[in-house]
């Protein structure tokens, strides 16, 4: 891995930052672009927000759509993936008895979103248990397909899961759902910039992802993709200047010259669009630094770190490598109290890393990005060795009174 990449980031050098997956980290050149946009906004806010915004926001839509395998008419910029998925969930015409099919690995904020929708509409959430460890695409797909029936209206899946850092093989479930007339809604919060995407080829109905994580844009930039023939179903959470009452047809021009799908979601009144406008700079930063190679190095280091910890604990991994997120691995460790364990890792070793309990597993989730190094992974393994040894001694002391 290139040793000089860390100098391009703004992270504190007194913290071993192994948690890119939570909120990302923005490279300095991209952050400077973000600040330049903010400054331009403040210099002439009326022109920026009142006259020029629609044309400005088209530029990142064009750049990002090419990066994601679609066209600029099929996606719109938002603040985060949770917003995008809320827009979809609250737009779909669900009723009592309809079923929303999902898994037991979903992000808690979206579990709450669908619970809210179910309470409001009378729809029912059906949660399937993914066969663990995840080592078979067929087992994953069959589990979902077997749960589909005539009442299933929505298939909601993460592409890369947050708690377990798994890369779900979602392609065949999407195809099967489409055959049955089931809407497919995909949480891609961890996906853009992490794995290649071709949204049109995937055949997904609705897909929302964050740019501020693995694409490394500033915080507050995300997108919602909607297949053209379904864009008329989408309603904004907030009715504002972009709302077009007279037409919801995909090819109609809205109040700001785009389709109603784009105008109604983009033109939400006064806000700071600088993070979204910085998307092209983030894509260029990746190109300038050969991020395909960087990501491959990160993937190798992440898997190596997971193997080292497995050798230490003897615990089975949550998946085979092909179903692990390339640069993010959820590593099982012996039982611990998550809040205390996290506090000790920061206090003793200055390591920023998420630790938590998921079902019966206690997990340390490591992210590896271009600014990380083998030396940092050595610090992590050393710290976990010490911490787990200390945990063992405490347990022996408790057992012996």
UniProtKB/TrEMBL annotation:
Residue ranges of domain Aminotransferase class V in the record: 54-379
Entries under InterPro entries matching the protein: Aminotrans_V_dom, PyrdxlP-dep_Trfase, PyrdxlP-dep_Trfase_major, PyrdxlP-dep_Trfase_small
Protein name, UniProt field: Aminotransferase class V domain-containing protein
Alphabetic keyword roster: Pyridoxal phosphate
Keyword tRNA-binding: no
Listed Pfam families: Aminotran_5
Top-level division of the source organism's lineage: Bacteria
PROSITE patterns tied to this protein: PROKAR_LIPOPROTEIN
């Amino acid at each position: 891995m290139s040793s000089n990449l860390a100098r391009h980031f703004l992270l504190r050098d007194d913290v071993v930052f192994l948690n890119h997956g939570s909120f990302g980290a923005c490279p300095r050149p991209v952050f400077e672009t973000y600040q330049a946009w903010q400054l331009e906004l403040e210099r002439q806010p009326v022109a920026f927000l009142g006259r020029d915004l629609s044309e400005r926001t088209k530029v990142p839509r064009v750049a990002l759509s090419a990066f994601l395998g679609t066209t600029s008419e099929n996606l719109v910029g938002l603040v985060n993936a949770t917003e995008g998925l809320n827009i979809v969930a609250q737009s779909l015409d669900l009723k009592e008895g309809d079923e929303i099919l999902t898994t037991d690995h979903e992000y808690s904020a979206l579990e709450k979103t669908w619970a809210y929708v179910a309470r409001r509409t009378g729809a029912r959430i059906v949660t399937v248990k993914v066969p663990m460890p995840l080592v078979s695409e067929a087992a994953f797909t069959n589990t979902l397909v077997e749960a589909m029936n005539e009442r299933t209206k929505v298939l909601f899946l993460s592409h890369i899961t947050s708690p377990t850092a798994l890369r779900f093989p979602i392609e065949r479930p999407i195809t099967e759902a489409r055959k049955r007339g089931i809407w497919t809604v995909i949480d891609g919060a961890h996906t853009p910039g992490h794995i290649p995407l071709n949204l049109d080829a995937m055949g997904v109905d609705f897909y929302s992802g964050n740019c501020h994580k693995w694409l490394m844009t500033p915080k507050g930039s995300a997108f919602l993709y909607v297949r053209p023939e379904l864009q008329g179903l989408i309603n904004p959470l907030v009715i504002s200047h972009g709302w077009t009452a007279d037409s919801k047809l995909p090819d109609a021009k809205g109040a700001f010259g785009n389709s109603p799908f784009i105008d109604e979601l983009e033109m939400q009144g006064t806000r700071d669009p600088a993070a979204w406008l910085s998307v092209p700079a983030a894509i260029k930063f990746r190109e300038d630094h050969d991020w395909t190679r960087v990501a491959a190095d990160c993937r190798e280091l992440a898997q190596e770190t997971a193997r080292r910890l497995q050798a230490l604990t003897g615990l089975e991994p949550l998946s085979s490598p092909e179903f692990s997120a390339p640069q993010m691995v959820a590593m099982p460790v012996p039982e611990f109290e998550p809040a205390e364990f996290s506090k000790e890792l920061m206090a003793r070793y200055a390591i920023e890393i998420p630790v938590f309990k998921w079902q019966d597993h206690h997990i340390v989730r490591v992210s590896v990005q271009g600014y990380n190094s083998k030396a940092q992974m050595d610090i992590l393994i050393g710290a976990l060795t010490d911490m787990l040894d200390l945990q063992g001694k405490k347990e022996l002391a408790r057992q012996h009174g």
